[in-house]
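input
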Amino acid sequence: MPILPILTFPNSILRKKAKTVNSFDKELKNLIDNMTDTLKHAQGVGLAANQVGVLKRVCIIKHSPEEDYKAYINPEIIKKEGYRYVSEGCLSFPEYNGIVKRSVSVTARYLDESGGKIKINAKELLSQALEHEIDHLNGILFIDHLKEHEKLHINGQDTDAHTHEINLSVNVDNNENKDKFDTKLYTKIGLDDLKLALERADILKEVEGK
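output
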């Protein structure tokens, strides 16, 4: 299955709301298979269809080594409990993390690949991943939840981390590695646009030595 390019901020598709899935056909199965292979390649925890340019309410999540990759179709959160602050990243913001407010646990419902209705109670990383990916499907990004007065930081600079999506080996700031990024997932233009957009938004922490 092909690896799908991942859109990076500020691509406008990331701000659009995905549409409800009504047909469980071959096209949907192909999308799920391709998104799963893309997430495997990226070594991430979650991926929403918006992030690969498809406005369908589909996301793929793998929240622990023991669990397989799972598709969540038309997911929605119906109950939230508690709150916590966690360090979170996003495959559409490779290299950056930020402190965001998330629930301690959530109750969610979704459809599986055959259209079956499922309801789950989720906590820890699965709870965080569901909130993150459902936000994506609603055109909401994790930077919208940044803790007051907090800014994004480069991966690896904050040791108090509960990372939502595994850090990628992408570094657009280091001159020695400026051409070493995953061309299957990202374009140099996309990464440059991301860095410029974040600088203009003034939500990047200053890096020592820069």
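quick obs: The domain at 12-201 is CATH 3.90.45.10 (Peptide Deformylase).
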